[in-house]
Structures are given as C-alpha cells and as structure tokens.
Write a structure and sequence with these properties.
The chain has 298 residues and is an alpha+beta fold. The chain folds into two domains: 11-134 and 274-293, Rossmann fold (3-Layer(aba) Sandwich), CATH 3.40.50; 136-270, Tumour Suppressor Smad4, CATH 2.60.200. Helices cover 20% and strands 36% of the residues. The protein contains seven helices and 19 strands. The protein has a six-stranded antiparallel beta sheet with strand order 8-7-18-15-10-11. Strands 14-13-12-9-16-17 form a six-stranded antiparallel beta sheet, with no helix packed on it. A hairpin with a 2-residue loop joins strand 10 and strand 11 (176-183).
C-alpha cells in the first residue's frame, strides 16, 4: 500500500546494528551531512557508543526515538529494522523508516551503502516513495486475563522447544474453528513476513500490497496441513493443547518470546497502525525478490 509523503523532516533518528563497528565512520559522516542541511541527527543510545565521544551529541533509547524524531534511518540488516519498527508501533508513532543494509541486500533494508546519500536526499525532499506495511497486534491470554501484548511487522510464531515433542494447536479464524495442527509450530505472518520464517517453512510469498495474513504450519505431521492465505480483516486464535510435559513458546518477530502454559491462547489480528517504509530507490519489489532468491540463476 502507498502512504502519504512525510511532513518536513527536522530530526532524523539513527539506529545501527548492535556492535556494528564497520558503521562507525559512516555514522560520523551521516551526522555531518544531515547537519549541513539543517537536519538534527539523534542517535540511538547503543549506536552512539560506536562513535567518538562528543558532548553535544543528542541520544535517546529506541522507544524514545519513536516520539522524538520525524524519520528513522536504520543501518544494518532486516533484524535491526524489525526491532525499531516494533518500537515505533508500540509508541503509537507513524514516522517513516529508511533501511540501509551493511551486508547483502535485505528484503526490508534494501538500500545499499552506495545508495545511502541519494536515498537520504530523496527522503528529506519528500520525493521518497512510502509503503504502508501491515503489522500484527498479538495478545497472549492467560487465566482469563491479558498476559502480554505485542505489535510485530513480520510474524507471531507458536513453536515447541528444541527437544520437545511436536505440539497440538487448535486454530480458529474469528469464531470459526479451522483445524488442529500437529506440527513443530505455526506461523501467523504478514505479507512483509511472508519472505521471512514463513518462506523457510514452505509458505507462500505474498506481495506487500495484498491485505492478507498467512497461516503456515512448521513441519506438520500430516501433509494435508498446508499454508492458507486469509483476509487481514479477521482475527486468528491459537490454543496449544498441552500438558505439563510440553515446552511451547510464542515469539514475535524473533525479538521477544514467552513460554506458554496449559490453557493459554494467542489472538492475532491486523494492528491499527502500519509501518511506513521508505523506498527511496527505483528498485522494484520483484527485483529484490530476484536478487535475494536468485531466481533464474543456474
């Protein structure tokens, strides 16, 4: 989905992958480049430790950045962007994010180092294309109350521990019972997350403009348990049918995990807010797929 262009950008939050020392010199140069254009850089606290000490440098935590700046620049990989995206959504903010990859091209951090400054220039001028990416709102219910809530860009995953037996999961869509899945777990993914764990588990790729969710069993015991694409307007309820011997976890974007107890259930639906992802390059989604998945190569 396309989204409206950002308002005038006066402050840019900068977040680098943890301990990415290769970014140190780039961080200094980016700060200078922004300041020369009248834009104030604000560094995520851990990111600032990668740079030489400077008394007047503005720093903030990830959660604080979400409400302090007009845009976030992420340097690293898709995991770094996921972490920041979740913080932005939890803060109720809608600031756009530009992802720059320090390794191979990412599905989310698609801008290369060589494209960094042209991409920044495009973003600051308001000419950058913004995509609104669907996010998930997940609630873990326990003993009649809410145990945990999270927003995630990629997925919510219910899975067994490494040495545990397969799990038995009862699944509802809205109020309709769907199936019981006996598998290593179940993925509820957004279109953005369709190219993450969902893809590795054999699920379909869903173009980000499609308003849908994907349910993908992980190594199902019965081959008739296949991935299914459902409307993004519904809610998914998953209840592990477990006893005290089972070790079952729910994980959000691979960032946060909780061990579940018998009787727990997880409800997943489309979040009220979307991630506004800046696409400042002319590279299409299908070009990214071809590059990442090596389509057509022998």
């Amino acid at each position: 989905m396309s989204a409206p262009p950002p308002a005038a950008i006066a402050r840019v939050g900068i977040v680098a992958k943890s301990e990415l020392h290769a970014a140190a010199s780039h961080l200094v140069d980016i700060a200078l480049w922004l300041e020369q254009r009248g834009v104030r850089p604000v560094f995520e606290s851990a990111t600032a430790t990668l740079m030489p000490a400077l008394a007047e440098r503005r720093t903030a935590s990830k959660s604080e950045l979400a409400t302090l700046v007009d845009m976030v620049l992420v340097l690293g990989g898709d995991g770094t962007l996921l972490s920041m995206a979740d913080c932005i959504a939890e803060a109720g903010s809608d600031i756009p994010v530009l992802g720059v990859n320090f390794g191979n091209l990412g599905f989310l951090t698609e801008v290369t180092l060589q494209e960094l400054y042209p991409a920044l220039e495009t973003a600051l001028s308001g000419r950058g294309r913004i995509e609104a990416r669907v996010m998930l709102r997940s609630t873990v219910r326990r003993a009649g109350g809410i145990f945990a809530q999270h927003i995630a860009l990629n997925d919510a995953v219910v899975t067994k521990a490494a040495r545990s037996r397969m799990v038995d999961l009862a699944v509802w869509i809205d109020d309709d019972f769907v199936t019981r899945v006996k598998a290593d777990g179940l993925i509820v993914a957004t279109p953005t997350g369709s190219t993450a764990y969902n893809l590795a588990a054999g699920g379909p790729i869903v173009q980000p403009d499609v308003e849908a969710l994907v349910l993908t069993p992980i190594a199902p015991h019965t081959l008739t348990n296949r991935p299914v694409v459902i409307p993004a307007t519904v809610s998914v309820r998953v209840q592990p049918m477990m006893d005290g011997r089972d070790e079952v976890y729910v994980t959000f974007d691979g960032q946060t995990a909780y061990q579940l107890q018998p009787g727990d259930e997880i409800v997943v639906s489309k979040a009220a807010s979307c991630l506004r992802l800046l696409r400042a390059t002319t590279r299409s989604y299908y070009q990214v797929l071809r590059t990442k998945l090596k389509w057509g190569e022998r």
